[in-house]
Amino acid sequence: MSRRPLRIALLCAALLASAPGTAHARGPGSVEPPAAPLAPAAAPPAGAGLPVRPAAAPTPRPAEARPYVQSYGRQTVLSDLAALSLLGVAWVAQDETFAYASLGVYALGAPAVHIANGQPGKAGASLALRLGVPAATFVAAYGASKILCERGGGSDSLGEGLGQAVCILAVFGVVTPAAFLVPSAIDADRLAKKAVRPGPALSVMPTLMPTRQGAMVGLGGTF
Fold first, then answer.
1. What CA–CA distance (Å, rounded) separates 5 from 11?
2. Residue 83 is inside which H or E element, if any?
3. Are 69 and 43 in contact (CB under 8 A)?
4. 167, 149 Cβ separation under 8 angstroms
5. CA neighbours within 13 Å on the CB side: how many for 2?
6. What is the rounded average pLDDT of the residues 55-70?
7. Where are the beta strands (DSSP E) in the chain?
8. pLDDT in tens, 155-210
């Protein structure tokens, strides 16, 4: 038998024995290689495990109260109604004193209402309106009566005189109510207004306070 195949077999056996993956079983005296050290666990963050408190919601800011327009036209209308009542008393009693009082209340009553509501500028405008409009209206009515009612160039007949009187009364009967009603309506609808800033809201809350003798009941709030 030739030695060459034997040498080849021994060489192959030596190569197989020196390979790292072939030696699975170790002998009794073999020593296990030390295990690779484990990486240390990461420390928990500070505060971990504590209950999480929800973030407080931002406190809403109260809305700023906006001023609003308040009308006090009813007060000026009541003043004019008082002036009209005095005029009726003057007509029934046939007393000029009540007639003058009626004119004074009409001219000064509404301006006094404006001053009482803190509107002195509107009081002046109201006074000018109540004096200027009737004066201008009566001047225009007098001119219209001279043109419309005087015909014939100064006739002295009774019929002609009655016709002129009726014409003048008709002109002034239409003009006079308008001369006083128009300023009153403008005053109540346009001038009698003011800006008001609302104050704090009224709130009332019942309270109960225990005492040695029993309890005390009351009301509390903002006024």
1. 10
2. helix 73-93
3. no
4. yes
5. 4
6. 71
7. 68-71, 193-196, 203-210, 215-222
8. 455 456 677 788 888 888 888 899 999 999 999 999 999 998 886 655 555 566 67
